[in-house]
Amino acid sequence: MNDKFSQCLKEIRVDKNIAQKEIAECLGIYTNAYQLYEYGKRKPSFEIFVKICEYFNVSSDYILGFSDIKERR
User: Fold this and answer.
1) Considering only CA atoms, which of 28, 29, 72, 73 is closest in space to residue 53?
2) Degrees, nearest 5: CA angle 64-62-50
3) Which pTM was predicted?
């Protein structure tokens, strides 16, 4: 994963006006673990990455910065 992931993750969350704590609870992780994803200090496991894409309804290509198409199909 790259820095684009961290930037995109934060951008999506802020756009949807969702607190980090709320997302972390839905993912079943600690809030500080989620914060580290946004800060680019830690990368999620594949399982958590998939849950993030599902939670935000975005494609993996979009959140990794490989595509401008946001919505999953």
Assistant:
1) 72
2) 70
3) 0.87
Measured distance CA(39)–CA(70) in Å, rounded:
21
Q: Are 37 and 8 in contact (CB under 8 A)?
A: no
Residue 12 neighbours by CB under 8 Å, 6+ apart: 56, 58, 63
Instruction: Band the pLDDT of 65: cuts 50, 70, 90.
Output: confident
The whole-angstrom separation of Cα 39 and Cα 35 is 6
Cβ neighbour number for residue 15 with a 10 Å cutoff: 10
Q: How far apart are alpha carbons 11 and 45 in whole angstroms? A: 20
Q: Minimal CA–CA distance to 68: which of 1, 20, 11, 29?
A: 11
How much of the chain, in percent, has pLDDT values that exceed 90? 82
